[in-house]
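quick q for whoever's on today - can somebody do inverse folding on this one?? i tried earlier but teh output was garbage lol. tokens:
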């Protein structure tokens, strides 16, 4: 049990959580969906995201959703903030210690696929770790050799697609390529990512998926598409634009995520 887990249990109670949800840029409003919630500032929890990126929250929320006890991390720490690919390890270890068997990740991403437009959702079916960094570098045990086949749990993906069909929300599926950021991609880098077979690019998530699998959690991830990749449209890519456009995806995730949690 991590020190942070003990603090959380003291504040929010010892009943185990079923799942942890990580919210990406501009998606922190999803935290409003939690009932009977307790908010704990990250600053009180050792190892939780520091610094911060605008558009991200800085609280851990514990409460109920879809009849389950859930933790929501309203913001994440990114590799690009200081070059630590394992920045989310203490927070995710704490989630596992609190009982989370499932990890639901969200992010904002740029589309490489004409069919996936700003405002759309894309489930991650797989990823390409193009940043080349791995959060398990330095992990001394053989547990570091994590099998990444089906790392985006296929049952959870199928459930999310069925829920999308029921709620009339288009849910695409595709491969996410992790570029470190924080600069956006060049036009040439976007063309390369397309040739590598990716459908979307972003600056997060892949290291958390590796950590989630390392910790034995079932992992699911969904991108809110905020823009077309650099050079694929006339829109001007910026962090402000990402935050503004994320609202559309957030409205869909607000419906999709509670329905998915109910089925966990
Ligand atoms: N590239 C990388 N990350 C992103 C993008 C993008 O175009 N949009 C939102 N996050």
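ok took a stab at it. sequence:
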């Amino acid at each position: 049990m991590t020190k942070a887990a003990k603090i959380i249990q003291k504040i929010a109670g010892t009943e185990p959580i079923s799942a942890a949800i990580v919210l990406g840029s501009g998606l922190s409003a999803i935290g409003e969906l939690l009932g009977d919630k307790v908010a704990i500032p990250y600053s009180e929890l050792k190892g939780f995201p520091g610094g911060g990126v605008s558009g991200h929250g800085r609280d851990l929320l514990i409460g109920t959703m879809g009849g389950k006890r859930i933790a929501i991390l309203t913001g994440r720490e990114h590799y690009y903030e200081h070059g630590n690919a394992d920045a989310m390890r203490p927070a995710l270890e704490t989630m596992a210690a609190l009982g989370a068997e499932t990890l639901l990740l969200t992010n904002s991403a740029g589309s490489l696929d004409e069919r996936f437009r700003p405002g759309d959702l894309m489930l991650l079916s797989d990823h390409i770790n193009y940043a080349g960094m791995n959060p398990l570098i330095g992990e001394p045990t053989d547990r570091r050799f994590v099998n990444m086949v089906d790392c985006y749990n296929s049952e959870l993906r199928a459930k999310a697609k069925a829920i999308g069909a029921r709620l009339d929300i288009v849910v695409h599926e595709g491969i996410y390529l992790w570029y470190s950021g924080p600069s956006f991609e060049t036009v040439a880098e976007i063309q390369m990512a397309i040739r590598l077979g990716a459908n979307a690019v972003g600056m997060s998530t892949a290291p958390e998926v590796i950590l989630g699998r390392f910790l034995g959690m079932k992992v699911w991830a969904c991108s809110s598409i905020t823009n077309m990749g650099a050079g694929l449209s006339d829109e001007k890519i910026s962090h402000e634009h990402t935050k503004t456009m994320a609202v559309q995806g957030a409205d869909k995730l607000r419906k999709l995520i509670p329905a998915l949690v109910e089925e966990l």
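fwiw Strands lie at 19-22, 35-41, 59-65, 68-73, 102-111, 121-128, 171-178, 200-202, 218-228. also The mean pLDDT is 95. so keep that in mind when u check it
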